[in-house]
Structure formats: C-alpha cells, structure tokens
Amino acid sequence: MSLFEFDFMQRALVAAVLVGLAAPAIGTFLVQRRLALMGDGIGHIALTGVALGFLLGTAPVLTAIVVAVLGAVTIELIRERGRTSGDVALALLFYGGIAGGVLLIGLSPGGSSTTLVGYLFGSLSSVRAEDLIVIAVLTVAILGVVLVFGREMYAVCMDEEVARVSGLPVRFLNLLVAVTAALTVTVAMRVVGLLLVSALMVVPVATAQQMSTSFRATLLGACGLGVLASVGGLVMAFYADVAPGASTVVLALGGFLIAAAVGAVTRRTA
Amino acid sequence: MNVFELTAGCVALGGREVLHEVSVVVEAGEFVAVLGANGSGKTTLVRTLVGLVPLTGGSLSLFGTPIRRFREWPRLGYVPQRLAVGGGVPSTVREVVASGRIGRARRLRPMGRDDRAAVDHALEDVGLLDRAGDAVGRLSGGQQQRVLIARALAGEPEVLVLDEPTAGVDADSQDTLAGALGHLSQAGGSVVLVAHELGPLAELIGRAVVLHDGRVVSDGPPPAPEGHHADPGHVHVHPHETSQPAQRSMLEPRTFG
C-alpha cells in the first residue's frame, strides 16, 4: 500500500509541493538582501498568532497570517530606520513572539504548550482540507508577486539607494517583500513548522548558488530543490515517524553539503 | 537648461548640519567635479542632488522642476560609492547592468529590443561585453566598479552622478571609466562626480566645485593638472595618497560627509 493512499498524506503532499515552491522563491530575495534570518523572526512572531487563534476559537492559520503580516511590517519599518538599536528591537520582537505564543496557549481552554509542537516543527496529519485551500491561495499570491514585481524587487534588494534614484517605490517594494515572506511563513508552518520554516526559505537558495552564476538560475534552482526537500522530507517523516520539518531541513542541508563539495571541486578545476 | 539648481541648500545628518547654504547650478552638458577633504560634505552634496538626502533649508530643482514634484527619474543615473556590487545571491554582469533599465521598464512586460541594445551598449562602453555572462562576484574591484557604472549607463540617463568612481580602481579601469564618461559627455550628457583623485578624469573636467566644512569655497575652472598642489583652493585633495587608493579607502574612517 502506497503512503499516498492516505487522505492526510495526499493533502500533506500537495502542501509540501506548494511550500517547496513558494519558500525558496521569496527566500532568494531575502538572501539577496542579506536578510536570511527575517523568515526566522517572522516565524517566532507567527507563533503568537497561532496561539491567539486557539484562544479566540478561530482558525489558527488565519490569526497567524494577520500577526505574521503585522510582525513583518514592523520588522521592515524598524530595519528601514537603519539604526543599530534596530538589531535589539528585532530581538525583542522575536522573543516576544515565542513568549506570547506560549503564554496565550496556556490561557486558552484546553491548550498547553504541547499543542504548539505541531506548529513549531510541522505535522503530517495536521493539514486539513480547509488549510489546503488557504495554502493554495497564498502560494498563488506569493508566486504572483514574484512574477509581477520580481524585477523591481531584484533591483531594490541589490541596491536600495540606486533603486530609489531610479524612481522605484522602494518602501512599497520592501514592505511587499516582508509581507510576502510573512505569508510564506504561514503557508509553510503546517509542513515544516515555524521554527524551521526559514530553513526552507534559505537553504535551497544557498545550495542553488553553489552551482549557478545568475540570479534567475539560483531562484529557479532553489524552487526545484525546495520541492525535492519538502516532498522527500514528507516521505521520510512518514516512514521514520518523525516531524516533517526536521526531515525536510535535514535533507535540504544534506543537499547543501553535497553541492558545496561539488562546487568547491568544480571551481578549483574551472 | 539647468540639470540641477540647488539654492542655499542646508542639510543636517543626525542633528548636525553638514551643508550650510550651498548653492550649485549644473547646466546641461557640463562635466563637474566636486572636490574637498573627507568630511567636507562632498558625498552629502551629491546625495542631496539625487534626492537621497532631504534638504532642511533652501531649494532644489531637477531639470527645472522642484524636487517635490519631480517624477522623471530615468533622466538621472546614480553610481553610489561601493567597493563591490551588492547582494547575497550571485548575479551575472548582464543581470546587474540590466537592472539599471528598471526605471524605464514596465511591469509584466519583458525586456524589449531597445532594452537589450541599451544594456549591450553600456557593457561595451565599459569594456565588459565579453564578461556579460560571468558572475559579477568573480570580477576584480575595478571591473565591479565598471559594472556599477554600466548599470547607470544602461538607463540612458541625461545626467550621471558618481560618488568616488575611481576610489580603489586600477589604472586600466580608470582609463576605461574616463572613456565611458567621455562618450556620455560628447553625446551631450552631464556628469557630476565626487573625486579624491582625478587621474585620467582630469582632462574631462570642465569645472570644479570645492567644498570645505560644508561650504563652497571655490567654483570655477578645474585646477591645472601641473603644479596644482600649490593652488590655494586645492589643499583639500589628498595627492600624497595616490599610491594606494584601495588601502586608503579601507583604512580611512568612513565619513559620509
């Protein structure tokens, strides 16, 4: 009997493919901007959103979207001011996110911090049919943003000042990247979990750039590698009975090590 | 027509005024060097001209339009002071240069023949057409500086503003830069550049604005290449540092003044 005969595995598979595509697509822009850890920060903040959903009795994925988007906008506005204290402000925001999440889940009826584990590290059985709809809609939105605004986002992520002098709406584009990253975090949280979501946004990019010389090839390669890692991680999680976030990220990191070794050898001989 | 018209411009950074009632007019077709010591306000002046730093007093017009209402940004090209092309993801030389077309691009419309021709032309102008497919990070510092200039040229600007384009750049690249800027100038374009060392650019410069402590202390024909160290208006340039410009820019405390 194939593992994908289970309904929950079919749903998880669809979610994994979508997440594997979306996370590295926006992740490439974060790495380009040297904000690789931004997804991490948003993930921490989104935990408060998840717990808020439990407390209010609404779908955690919806409250997570709202809180993650607000958090991402806050992070971007702090970053924009560019003071060194911004670094500390960001740290405060991250810790507040985790602490807020654990606190709120403790206050919600029947909730405990173990409820959050599935959200922190992903869970195969947690992807429900209605989650899948949200995930699909958001993935289309994320890929749409990259398709429509990719050229402008590339210019801004490479050199903000030059982009400003070119007349680009820099603040809008920066917020767009941040909000898109926040949506990605909430898309990915069911499959890889909030603590590991950033890995799926960054590791495939790091792997792809070992073998590519162009931004476009890095982006496309990272999306391909992201799908491989998330689907492979899902299969591994099913058989080994581990959290899918862990298996996905371990696979992605394994791919990175191989690519780094191959890249080092080919660069030497080139 | 005046490209830039700054009148009694004051600029404060971090609460400290770094430009005091600076008035500078750049006419179309002029080639202007902004000279002065570190901290004299050169970089702030050119950043103000391109709209990156807001005025705290005075007024600024670009192509005859007050900056508040100015929208024709593709007429401007800007090359900031950078030691390398930025970004954490590899880009090809062509990708970086093509991003300079962004001001003239339309959303959802792929690059057309005009765009590609402008990118090719810019690459050719800085002598990097044969490196177009290479990762920009593999290029030398001087070559990366040429990429940054090609990016600005790809937008086909009427005026190019450059902040220390020759700092840390090898002699060959300096010559190539001078050639590219010379072409722009011959074609009727205007150039405003900040420089510590004029090098091969010296013969292109038609006018020098010298700043000292945030004020214009001289504005007129550039100092003669020979014996200009003796020129009283020129004490702020650092001729003794010619030998190792790259090291200098690394070691010097970074002043954005």
Major sheet summary line of chain B: 6 strands, mixed
Rg measurement of chain A, Å = 18 Å
CATH superfamily of chain B: P-loop containing nucleotide triphosphate hydrolases
Per CATH, the class of chain B reads: Alpha Beta
Distance between the termini of chain A: 47 Å
Structural class estimated from helices and strands of chain B? alpha/beta
Strand content of chain A: under 5%
- Main beta-sheet strand count, sense and barrel state of chain A: none
- Structural class computed from helices and strand pairing of chain A: mainly alpha
Order of helices and strands of chain A: HHHHHHHHHHH
User: Unreliable runs of chain B, pLDDT <50, ≥5 residues?
Assistant: 228-257
Question: Can you characterise this structure?
Answer:
The complex is a heterodimer of chains A (270) and B (257). Chain A has 270 residues and is an all-alpha fold. Chain A has one domain: ABC transporter involved in vitamin B12 uptake, BtuC. Chain A has helices spanning 7-32, 38-56, 60-81, 85-107, 113-121, 129-158, 160-165, 170-188, 197-211, 215-240, 244-269. The longest helix of chain A has 30 residues, at 129-158. The radius of gyration of chain A is 18 Å and the shape is globular. Chain B has a single domain, classed as P-loop containing nucleotide triphosphate hydrolases (Rossmann fold, 3-Layer(aba) Sandwich), CATH 3.40.50.300. In chain B, 46% of the residues are buried. With 257 residues, chain B is α/β, with parallel strands linked by helices. In chain B, helix 3 (113-125) packs antiparallel against helix 4 (141-154). The model of chain B is unreliable at 228-257 (pLDDT under 50). In chain B, the strands form 2 sheets. Chain B has a 6-stranded mixed sheet with strand order 6-7-8-3-9-10, with helices on both faces. Chain B has a 4-stranded antiparallel sheet with strand order 2-1-4-5, with helices on one face. The A-B interface holds A 28, 31-34, 36, 148-149, 151-152, 154-155, 157-159, 161-168, 205, 209, 212-216, 218-219 and B 50-52, 71, 73-74, 76-80, 82, 85-92, 95-96, 99-100, 102-103, 105, 107-108, 133-135, 151-152, 155.
